[in-house]
From TrEMBL:
InterPro entries found in the cross-reference section: YjdM (IPR004624), YjdM_C (IPR013988), YjdM_N (IPR013987)
Domain of life: Bacteria
NCBIfam families xrefs: phnA
Family: Belongs to the YjdM family.
SUPFAM superfamilies cross-referenced by the UniProt entry: Prokaryotic SH3-related domain, Zinc beta-ribbon
Domain Protein YjdM C-terminal: 45-113
Span of domain Protein YjdM N-terminal: 4-32
This protein's name: Alkylphosphonate utilization operon protein PhnA
């Protein structure tokens, strides 16, 4: 099977190819390889709903996350004043401080902008 990209809008891995278009069955997003490459080159970081994130935004965690050595970061946890990191090799592109947890890095597909 071909190695298809994850959906840039919802991050789902079950995308399929229809001609020259990629389609996400979960959210209905359609994009081309050129669209995905242009967004990656522009350095745009998007949340779980596809909204563009910027430094200083407030976001909410959309899923319970296991944190090594600290327990579980619950769904609905508000994170204020985020900082975006471009070029992170491990996929963690948000740097922040969370009350009760301290400094940590999050993946943008695990948060939504308020």
């Amino acid at each position: 099977m071909a190695n298809l990209p994850n959906c840039p809008k919802c991050g789902d891995e079950y995308t399929y190819e229809d001609g020259h278009m990629f389609i996400c069955p979960m959210c209905g997003n359609e994009w081309t390889a050129a669209d995905a490459q242009a967004a990656a080159e522009a350095g745009i970081i998007r949340d779980a709903n596809g909204n563009e994130l910027a430094d200083g935004d407030t976001v909410v965690v959309v899923k319970d996350l296991k944190v090594k050595g600290a327990g579980i970061l619950k769904q609905g946890t508000r994170v204020k004043n985020i900082r975006l990191i471009t070029g992170a090799s491990d996929g963690h592109d948000i740097d922040c401080k969370i009350d009760g947890f301290g400094a940590m890095a999050l993946k943008s597909e695990m948060v939504k902008k308020i």
